[in-house]
Amino acid sequence: MKKRRDWIVVGIVAAVLAVAVVLAGTVVPGAAGRAVALGTTPSPWPSPSAGVVLQVGHDGTFKKQYTLADLQALGQGPFNGFAGFMNSGNIVYGPEAVSGIRVTDIVQDALQTQLTTAQSVAFIGSDGYSQTYSDAQLTHIDQMTQLYDASYKPPKAVSSTSYAGAFVPVLVYSDPAGNVFDPDPAPNGDGPLRLMVGDTLDEPVVMTGSDSVKWLVKINVVDSVAKNWSLKLTGLKIKGKRQARTLTRNDFQSCVNCHGSSYTLSGHKYSGTPLYLLVGEVDGGATMDYNAALAKKGYRVEIVSTSGKTRIVSSRTIIDKRNIVLAWQRDGALLGSSAFPLRLVGAKLRASQELGRIKSVVLLPPAKK
């Protein structure tokens, strides 16, 4: 791939490499007796043998490992097509010719059965970054990631149905010249594998960069579907307009991978990402560039639940506070039905300010005196 190093730049992900060994993931709320979160490996997995580039597990239990030659011999054989991505700064890399292995072929071989509608797959990088996709997302690419037409300036959000090629999730292992990616682990190497949306035809279509897991070394198939949800962020009205962004579950997981934080409440560890960083998405600056000066002037942060309940937190309270968290997990598993998908917890918050089932965050001007 031209300037291979470009492929390791993925917007937010490249900003801060995750140093935690804990691999973020999800479990369906209320799944009786299930203690394994997607992406985790509760029992030790063996150290990869010489030449191994990928390990595969099922519900956290190691199943099989593969060399590159092993992968190339699976199912339909290597996928030869085109892939690319756009980072959070709207910079496009590709699409360029790539070779890879279809995710479905890997799962079929490792589990000796096809992925079912009741399962999800966690794709895990050597740096701890992971993304989890349900069977439906992997089958219907428009549910897995937002595609963009790179021929527009800036790139235009599009649907896969607007193009003639077939779009499939693949683990890419080589560049256009057939050069295999450097198998050294993060942060020095480039590979050995990268999750991409491959197009069978040479079309100007790229995926969202944060949905693409680089330095990929593990896959964990879980017998539960990752439930989808979204968080809507709305900023202050500036010159008659409000910044707004809607984060999908995978967007939020990407934030947690790079900017994760936690808070212990009543003996339980709540994990997610700091509220102030999410506010930074819509407070007038560049993406994730938190405007602390504006927060010091004072405005209200309204937290809204799916049932219509609201809580108000002062912008001054959350300035650079990593221990005020919008949490999506409690003790390593998804929140229960009373709080799913997100709960606000943190230091210096009154009990009356904490809220679960959060669906949106809205920035409001100071209250009139």
Supply the key terms.
mainly beta; Sulfite Oxidase, Chain A, domain 2; five-stranded mixed beta sheet; 37% strand; globular; disordered N terminus
In short:
It is built from nine helices and 22 strands.
What secondary-structure arrangement, pairings included, does this model have?
Elements: H1 12-15, E1 52-58, E2 61-67, H2 68-72, E3 79-86, E4 92-102, H3 103-111, E5 120-125, E6 130-134, H4 135-139, H5 141-144, E7 147-149, E8 156-158, E9 167-174, E10 194-199, E11 205-208, E12 216-222, E13 230-238, E14 241-248, H6 249-259, E15 261-265, E16 268-274, H7 275-279, H8 292-297, E17 300-305, E18 310-314, H9 315-318, E19 324-330, E20 333-334, E21 343-346, E22 358-364
Parallel strand pairs: 1-12, 3-11, 13-22
Antiparallel strand pairs: 1-2, 3-4, 4-9, 5-6, 5-12, 7-8, 7-11, 9-10, 13-14, 15-16, 16-19, 17-18, 17-22, 19-20, 19-21
Tell me what the structure shows.
With 369 residues, this protein is mostly beta strands. The protein folds into two domains: 4-222, Alpha-Beta Complex (Sulfite Oxidase, Chain A, domain 2); 230-364, Sulfite Oxidase, Chain A, domain 2 (Alpha-Beta Complex). The protein has nine helices and 22 strands. The strands form four sheets. A seven-stranded mixed β-sheet has the order 8-7-11-3-4-9-10. Strands 2-1-12-5-6 form a five-stranded mixed β-sheet. The protein has a five-stranded mixed β-sheet with strand order 14-13-22-17-18. Strand 17 and strand 18 form a beta hairpin. The radius of gyration is 21 Å and the shape is globular. The relative contact order is 0.16. Mean pLDDT is 84; it is low at 1-39.
